[in-house]
Amino acid sequence: QVQLVESGGGLVQAGDSLRLSCAASGRTFSTYPMGWFRQVPGKGREFVAMIREDSGSTDYADSVKGRFTISRDNAKNTVYLQMNSLKPEDTAVYYCAASTTSTFYRYTSRQYYNTWGQGTQVTVSA
User: Can you tell me whether residue 111 is helix, strand or coil?
Assistant: First the structure.
């Protein structure tokens, strides 16, 4: 069983940067892909970024492409989301997620992931 704990959220101004971290425990971290999602009140959880087990492949939502970078350190059992040039519309609760079982869902779908962290709030003021 995998457990995920996010950290690094906070209140920043537009144009600032933040780095989110997600520490994993349990199953060997290097064997499953990881993702980041975000959610605002009244809306569904939105795909942000994904990284494969060996960091060989990443993908991003169009809304964050060129500003956010996902990375992982398998030695530290941690995945990161570096967020630059933040905008007020990036304000949300950010969740990391792990996909530790086989699934036919695409990695941009919530259903692809079977384990979630508790979320960390990111607030970007104008």
Answer: helix
